Amino acid sequence: xxxxxxxxxxxxxxxxxxxxxxxxxxxxxxxxxxxxxxxxxxxxxxxxxxxxxxxxxxxxxxxxxxxxxxxxxxxxxxxxxxxxxxxxxxxxxxxxxxxxxxxxxxxxxxxxxxxxxxxxxxxxxxxxxxxxxxxxxxxxxxxxxxxxxxxxxxxxxxxxxxxxxxxxxxx
Length: 171
Fold this sequence. Notes:
It contains five helices and five strands; from the N terminus they run ααβαββαβαβ. With 171 residues, the chain is of the alpha+beta class.
């Protein structure tokens, strides 16, 4: 399975890192109204999930992850560079916000259930600490919610606005 944001340039397809970074900074999340056949599509999806369960296949869902990390003060340039490298290595990251002693990473994860999504999220920082040269901070918070809950919060005016810019930004 390839994890990527819609419109992301696949690795190894040419183009400079600068051009890819510039393109990523131009993209932003947007909301799209549901089409006329929205309810019909949801019923088809529910039917295919039921079929998969009957056949004993694992059914995956999308989970919105918010990972909060904190630790000793680190120069902002190092924090930003580490988060940008993490976003480059894992294009599924939506947005990161940072300060010199903490950061927050938001992204979508595909997993069978909440337990699997949380397990992957809890490994993210530690597994990529050395490769992305991330600060030696600890995970201090984790929120995992399903797609329906995320969209319900947005509709009610809670949570990050859906048009928040993608990328790495200071708090």
